[in-house]
Design goal:
CATH class of the largest domain: Mainly Beta
Protein name: Transcriptional regulator, AraC family
CATH superfamily of the largest domain: Jelly Rolls
Number of strands: 11
Structural class: alpha+beta
Oligomer: single chain
GO molecular function, one term: sequence-specific DNA binding
Number of helices: 10
Order of helices and strands: EEEEEEEEEHEHHEHHHHHHH
CATH architecture of the largest domain: Sandwich
Keywords: DNA-binding, Transcription, Transcription regulation
Organism: Ligilactobacillus salivarius DSM 20555 = ATCC 11741
Largest sheet: 7 strands, antiparallel
Number of domains: 2
Shape: globular
Pfam family, one: HTH_18
């Protein structure tokens, strides 16, 4: 199951470059989408959490800060992680000029994975595209400028090899994740290493090798995804949510949430309530 905010655009076959759709999805544990095939390019960027992206050739374990390309006619499936289900934004587009643009960007079916260190503007562009307004030439051109800027950011992303996103099993890492689930929010990298009986640095290296992210990043992802779930599914105050999710101050939660999702917790909660009335 997922909660998504999306906008579909009217297709005009004669247009050389056009938007197909744009959106943001906040998934629940284990949510699966696919197998699916689309007639347009689709780029996803992961805001928080983690999950698995499958193509007919490869399986990739991905997390916040990474993204993936789906080409027209390509069959794919993606599955949210059970412990840290991901949130992501996406943008779909097509046209002859789209084909030319994508030939200049180093993403393709063989190397579809990328990473970005600073995603603030990327999130802003998606939120701008999600704003509904009267159809006009001015709005259409403005939306295309947002798409081109989005692609320009992606063109500077770091391409990730298949080997660095391959899943590896490790009994200590599995135990670490289990302990995080049982002891959250009263858990830290240091206490986790002590409970498992490993040196903190050694555990951190094993964790990074298996998951592709540091232990601190995983804990940060876990905290914000738990906070998001409480914001969208309960009427708890932000103070109560901060306390339940291990944030010492409400403004720390608000700052992290805005940096991750591009919206304040209050605006995000309002958006979720509006979706329920549609």
């Amino acid at each position: 199951m997922e909660k998504a905010v999306s906008l579909n655009f009217i297709s005009v076959p004669s247009d050389q470059l056009q938007l197909a759709n744009v959106g943001r999805s906040d998934t629940l544990s284990g949510h699966k989408y696919g197998p699916a095939v689309r007639p347009y390019y689709l780029i996803h960027y992961i805001l928080a959490g983690s999950g698995t992206f499958k193509t007919d050739q490869s399986i990739y374990k991905l997390h916040a800060g990474q993204g993936f390309l789906i080409e027209p006619g390509q069959e794919t499936t993606y599955i949210a992680d059970k412990n840290t289900p991901w949130s992501y934004v996406w943008i779909g587009f097509s046209g002859n000029f789209a084909d030319q643009l994508m030939q200049q960007i180093p993403l393709n079916q063989r190397e579809p994975i990328f990473s970005l260190n600073d995603s603030k503007r990327l999130i802003e562009l998606v939120n701008l595209l999600l704003l509904k307004s009267v159809n006009s030439t001015t709005k259409k051109l403005l939306n295309l400028s947002y798409l081109l800027e989005f692609l320009s950011i992606i063109s500077n992303a770091t391409i990730i090899s298949r080997e660095s996103t391959t899943s590896i099993s490790d009994v200590y890492v599995e135990k670490a994740i289990s302990l995080i689930n049982k002891n959250f929010p009263n858990i830290s990298a240091a206490s986790l290493a002590q409970m498992i009986g490993l040196d903190r640095s050694y555990l951190g290296k094993r964790f990074k090798k298996v998951t592709g992210m540091t232990l601190q990043t995983y804990l940060k992802n876990y905290k914000i995804t738990q906070a998001r779930h409480l914001i969208e599914s309960t009427n708890l105050s932000l103070l109560e949510i901060s306390q339940r999710c291990g944030y010492q101050r409400v403004d720390s939660l608000a700052r992290t949430f805005k940096a991750t999702y591009g919206l304040t917790p209050s605006d995000f909660r309002l958006q979720q309530k509006e979706l329920l009335t549609l």
